[in-house]
Amino acid sequence: MACRCRFCGASLRHKFVDLGMSPLCESYVSLDQINRMERFYPLVAYTCSECYLVQLEAYVSADQIFSEYAYFSSYSDSWVEHARRYVDQMLDRFALDVHSRVVELASNDGYLLQHFVARGIPSLGVEPAANVAEVAVSKGVPTLVEFFGLATAQALVAEGMKADLLIGNNVLAQVPDLNDFVGGMKFLLNARGVITLEFPHLLNLMAENQFDTIYHEHFCYFSFTTFVNIFAAHGLLVFDVEELPTHGGSLRIYACHAGDLSKPVEPRVGELLKRETARGWDNLGAYGTFSEKVKETKRKLLSFLIKAKGEGRTVAGYGAPGKGNTLLNYCGIRTDFLDYTVDRNIYKQGKFLPGTHIPIFAPEKLMETRPDYVLILPWNIKDEIMSQHSYIRQWGGRFVVPIPEVHVFD
């Protein structure tokens, strides 16, 4: 293994988990592509022995992945509501007003900034996917179509723009050049400004066996301790942290310039650092046990599907998320086990999942075919999905969640 750590440059030798060969998880297949060759890449995560950053080797560039993207945040009602609550909280905590400037990195379809715009707060989104940015602009959210990094930050500052609040939700994992991205954030941040970032917590990924959140589009996976060290190396201080239920257990960090004394470090920072140390974040042995848990989940899911099909049951999927494509490709689940899947995202409907070629329909397909089981692939919003589609119980249908292990809901 010749690749080096994205943060510290150390050689990567310690394997975290090997999920075999997999296509890019957002490369949905159209009908005219169904018989063409697909590219598969190794899906192997490594743990850096120096800084303990879990990461993938990059096989494709970010612009190949994100220039046109199939993920639209606003299709999840619970996520839009999460964003609305966040905006209320930030306005209250940091006294933002019409004289403030809010910038969101990877702003997607305006799911979050639309709430700042509605309050009259000057806002700018930076989004690399032009097709997604177009939707944000239609909502009145000014959006710059670019990959963010130090050069972008310098260009914005040259135009007189500095961020009082700089936001990045579930973007840091998708950054191939980690130091360039964080360096750009520091450059763009106002002297008394605040950065907030949200990302899935690595320790939850390990504890809850969330291996399907590993895919090529996610280059890195962060413990809190490693994250704090990365920001410190760039002159940024983490002064607070919240633990959130989103995406199977996430962290929201608050950071500022290291020299900004107006923001005392909250006790939650030290408490979480101590908890991670107690759980062995800096011990490679703690990372080495994860792989066997992944194999066991695969065996249990396949056993469930084999039994269901042997009994003549029908099984459909709900959702076409990136995590679902990791799960299905790793487990070898195709239309022999999963008849089809459905998704609210019209961009995905009529296409096929990468690798497995499972067809994607609109949710109304469930009512037409009345499957016995509905496998929820975006398990992180299972409550929202089960509430929206509770009608499957009319014919005795049952929901199934595969992570952390197979669970059938009555």
Can you lay out the helices and strands and say which pair or pack?
Elements: E1 14-22, E2 41-47, E3 54-56, H1 62-66, H2 77-94, E4 102-105, H3 113-118, E5 123-126, H4 130-138, E6 143-144, H5 150-158, E7 163-169, H6 178-188, E8 189-200, H7 202-207, E9 220-221, H8 224-233, E10 236-244, E11 250-257, H9 267-278, H10 284-288, H11 290-310, E12 315-318, H12 322-331, E13 341-342, E14 360-361, H13 364-369, E15 373-376, H14 382-388, E16 398-401, E17 407-409
Parallel strand pairs: 4-5, 4-7, 5-6, 7-8, 12-13, 12-15, 13-14, 15-16
Antiparallel strand pairs: 1-2, 2-3, 3-9, 8-11, 10-11, 16-17
Helix pairs in contact: 5-6
| Average of the residue pLDDT scores | 93
Structural class based on helices, strands and sheet pairing: alpha/beta
How much is the radius of gyration in Å?
Answer: 21 Å
Number of separate strands: 17
How would you sum up the major sheet? 7 strands, mixed
Q: Note the total helix count.
A: 14
Strand content: 15-25%
Spatial strand sequence of the major β-sheet: 6-5-4-7-8-11-10
Terminal CA distance: 46 Å
The percent range for helix content is 25-40%
Unreliable stretches covering 5 or more consecutive residues = none
Tell me, briefly, the overall form.
Answer: globular
